[in-house]
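> forwarded from #structure-qc
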């Protein structure tokens, strides 16, 4: 009698039980690898408390003309000034070509809301907080802000006019979400 081997249907198409086990093991290893890496990738996302600090909504309806307030955004002071017509005129009359960091006033405010100037309240020299938010504090000869640490003087548009500061006060990202609310960040 001839030696006849028992032939399975899987053997006929070239697949074996070993191939099935190999594919299953590779698939499970892939799933396991993703499950191990996912917490690492997820940990790189910002925390909920950080996301909460990323924007600040401010009601500006209570800021009278000529008043200034300080709010905190990302742990830094932000100055919001409701400028008078005289302050806006003074800012627009400056010869921009004579400035160390030349920027027209129109580039530092939102169109239609020119009365509100919003700047980060950190001197661009060493990060000190300039004075001039209260009417009793010195504002320098240009009516803006004065940094007593090294004598930097900013105008009513937050532009550097005198002193060692290399740049104007920085403008944070902001948008008016309504006529009475501004979102910083």
């Amino acid at each position: 009698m001839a030696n006849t081997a028992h032939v399975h249907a899987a053997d006929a198409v070239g697949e074996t039980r070993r191939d099935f086990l190999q594919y299953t093991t590779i698939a499970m290893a892939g799933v396991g690898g993703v499950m191990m890496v996912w917490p690492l990738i997820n940990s790189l996302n910002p925390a909920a408390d950080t996301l909460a600090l990323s924007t600040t909504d401010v009601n500006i309806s209570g800021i009278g003309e000529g008043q200034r307030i300080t709010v905190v955004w990302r742990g830094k002071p932000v100055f919001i000034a409701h400028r008078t017509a005289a302050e806006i005129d003074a800012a627009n009359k400056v010869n921009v070509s004579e400035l160390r960091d030349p920027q027209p006033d129109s580039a530092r405010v939102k169109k239609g809301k020119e009365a509100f100037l919003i700047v980060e309240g950190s001197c661009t020299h060493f990060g000190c907080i300039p004075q001039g938010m209260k009417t009793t504090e010195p504002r320098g000869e240009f009516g803006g802000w004065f940094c007593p640490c090294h004598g930097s003087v900013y105008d009513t548009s937050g532009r550097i006019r005198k002193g060692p500061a290399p740049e104007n006060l920085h403008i944070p990202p902001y948008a008016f979400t309504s006529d009475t609310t501004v979102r910083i960040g």
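QC bot note: The chain is about 25% helix and 20% strand. The mean pLDDT is 87.
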